[in-house]
């Protein structure tokens, strides 16, 4: 009754679209965040984390 089953349960194939979607959303959010941090409006703001880490303002 318990232990190894006769048929394996597929895990990766049904979840692949969700994994790919999660990676795409993570990448796009990171790019948007980087673009907002380097925008003219927030480039010289003292709350900008890029300035706090030592990255020079353009």
Give structural attributes.
58 residues, mainly alpha
Fold and architecture overview:
Keywords: Membrane, Transmembrane, Transmembrane helix. InterPro entries: ATP_synth_F0_jsu. Pfam families: ATP-synt_J. The chain crosses the membrane at residues 12-30. The chain has 58 residues and is an all-alpha fold. It has one domain (12-52). The protein is 52% helix and 0% strand. It has two helices and no strands. The protein is rod-shaped. The termini are far apart.
Oligomer: single chain
Q: Separation of termini?
A: 66 Å
Structural class: mainly alpha
Instruction: Profile the largest sheet.
Output: none
Number of discrete domains: 1
CA radius of gyration is 22 Å
The number of helical elements comes to 2
Summarize model confidence as the mean pLDDT. Answer: 84
Write down how many β-strands occur, each being a DSSP E stretch of 2 or more residues.
0
Shape field: rod-shaped
- Kindly estimate the percentage of residues that lie in beta strands according to DSSP: under 5%
Helix content: 40-55%
Low-confidence stretches: none
**What order do the helices and strands follow?**
HH
Please describe the topology of this protein.
Layout: H1 12-37, H2 49-52
């Amino acid at each position: 009754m318990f232990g190894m089953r006769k048929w394996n349960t597929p895990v990766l194939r049904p979840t692949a679209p969700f994994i790919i979607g999660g990676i795409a959303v993570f990448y796009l959010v990171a790019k948007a965040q980087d673009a907002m941090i380097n925008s003219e409006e927030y480039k010289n703001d003292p709350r900008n984390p890029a300035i706090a880490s030592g990255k020079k303002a353009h």
